[in-house]
């Protein structure tokens, strides 16, 4: 990965060597002095249009800047400057060809992606061969691509082997339809609920319910059930609670589920809790969700426990 702090220190050195203030450098590059300050603190980089201009100003190459002045033989990142220049000159086809032929490694494109506009990155990725655009690479490019572009790339790449880490990495960025397709392809009878907890926020409720049905033959835990609560239907939640509530539930666990359970399921769950697991705080938290009769019994149990 690019070391932004190291690059920032190098930018600061170049500026000071020329006896320029941040404001003077900003004026020459037509950016704000706040932008220059962020570069030097390692909080950001010059954008792809500014980098070549910055390098020329100090008689350096873009590769010099992105490698923080390291000698050529010691450089970790090679050919980044070539990619930056071609994209800055609006020549995405050339960038794609270099990656496809192996002249430039895909890793270099991944490194440059954070400061390339999504529209420019799209023009490059749409011309990349499927042999170089695997799901693990798409996952790393995902934060910098538009959703439609990302969906197209995933569709092209999903013929290969799919792993859960790829799905969880892509989940926040692809459409729910594409995510559902990936999940459906991976399900082979070994789906576990903790996997669903990671991707549930990005799937439709009906799909999560269906996946839970496939997964619930395996082991269940309170942690998994609580993680899925906001994303499944009350019917599915009630079924999970019936399976996992074997007398091991405590008051705090019930409180966390109460807003999502129907009254019948909640009453049944409370009925399986030993009196010693109830406390005044638990009663107060559950009061808005139970009927008066259940609340009265809970208070009676609590009072009897105190005697």
TrEMBL record:
Tell whether Chloroplast is among the UniProt keywords.
no
What is the top-level taxon of the source organism?
A: Bacteria
**Domain HTH cro/C1-type stretches:** 11-65
Using the record, list the residue span of the signal peptide; answer none if the entry has no such feature.
none
Q: Provide the alphabetized UniProt keywords.
A: DNA-binding
One MF annotation (Gene Ontology) recorded for this entry: DNA binding
State the PANTHER family in the record.
HTH-TYPE TRANSCRIPTIONAL REGULATOR XRE, TRACRIPTIONAL REGULATORY PROTEIN-RELATED-RELATED
Q: What is this protein called?
A: Helix-turn-helix domain-containing protein
Supply the source organism for this entry: Paenibacillus sacheonensis
